[in-house]
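I am writing to request your help with a piece of structural work I have in hand. I am sending you one protein, given as its amino acid sequence and as whole-number tokens for its backbone shapes. Kindly check, if you would, that the fold set down in the tokens agrees with what the sequence suggests. You will find the record immediately after this paragraph:
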Amino acid sequence: MNLDDIKAQLAATDFFADQPPVVLDRVIDHAISLRVRKGEYVFQEGQTVSAIYLVVSGRLQAHVSDSANRKYVLMFNNPGELMGEVSYLDGGPCAWSAMAEEDCLLFKFNRNDLISIFGTADGLPSDTVRNQILMRLAGMVRRISASAKSLALLDVYGRIRLLFNDYTVTRDGVMQLQKTFTQQEIADLIGSSREMVARILKELVFGRYIIMENRRIVLLKMLPENF
């Protein structure tokens, strides 16, 4: 991927969308290129990071964890997306960890550099951008609140059903999950154990609701509300 492609990715984000090419050139000149291997962390929960990151390629997982290394996945970051805005805005420690699900290329933009480029005290280019970011973060809070609600009020099967509903696509007339998941990844996404997920998936196969082909899950019919 060349610099013009990266500039196009920046211009497609709400943070940099209204910036002229000459400003984007300055932003890229100050960027730090990071290659992150699968399983490595970009930043970790509790760490102070005064920067935002552009995901150029690869996929990252945002999660929280405890001292026993049990994880709960909050969201994913894909190419063309920014991450790290919360700590960038308030200067506080990271609320979650960002781990590479596959080899990734990122561009890191330090807050002090952007303050200098934009000439603003908070490192944001304009009030319009500030409002757009706040609206996007509000949407993020709503999604995390919905996840917390399902974690608190639904049983494990109910959480699996919601996850499948969110990720189901139809390709060539076949309903399937748009991403391949390991049983551990499903467990991390719904806040359960791999053993419990394995048992429920086995029962869904036996009930002829799904079939599993090399980590790909195909839905033979929509999952019932109760099972």
Summary: Residues 87 and 94 are 6 Å apart (CA to CA). The chain has a mean pLDDT of 90.
